[in-house]
Design a protein that fits this description.
Blueprint lengths: L11 H6 L5 H4 L3 E6 L2 E7 L5 E2 L3 E2 L1 H19 L5 E12 L7 E11 L3 E9 L5 E13 L3
Antiparallel strand pairs: 1-2, 2-6, 3-4, 5-8, 6-7, 7-8
Length: about 140
């Protein structure tokens, strides 16, 4: 499998609709674009994503990172036969944000047969980095 096989033909509206009634929609995460080896999404900074004290919760950033890295892996595999499952997420939170939306960009850095590794950078509206995460997904045969 190579990056040219990334399924970019699924309409963004359908991807977002498929995530309704889940943690993803509860946090307000919206897929913005899908390209070769890349997924971009945004999330509001709101009472649902803030920690006490009025800043974006690091756990919301982790959920955003794992969401788009997982989607990216699913779009790279034959999802009728295989599934992608997050097995590790590690992040550094290097800034804070109190309002607006954050934008996350996931880029695949390793695409093996059994694992995918993604780098996810999350930025404020002005482009300043607030979190960077590394997400590892395991690719498994369905019903195993």
């Amino acid at each position: 499998m190579d990056l040219s096989q990334l399924n970019t033909k699924i309409p963004i509206e359908l991807l977002n609709a498929s995530m309704q009634n889940s943690l993803i929609s509860s946090l307000g995460i919206e897929i913005e674009s899908v390209g070769e080896g890349e997924v971009v999404a945004s999330m509001p900074v709101s009472e649902k994503t803030m920690r006490p004290g009025g800043i974006l919760h690091g756990g919301a950033n982790l959920a955003l990172a794992e969401t788009i890295a997982g989607l990216g892996s699913i779009l790279l595999i034959d999802s009728n036969e295989y599934d992608a499952r997050g097995i590790q997420v590690a992040a550094n939170h290097v800034g804070g944000v109190k309002e607006g939306r954050v934008v996350a960009t996931a880029k695949i850095i390793h695409q093996g047969k059994q694992t995918h590794v993604w780098n996810v950078d999350i930025t404020r509206n002005d482009g300043k980095l607030i979190s960077t995460a590394r997400v590892t997904n395991m690719i498994i045969k369905k019903n195993d």
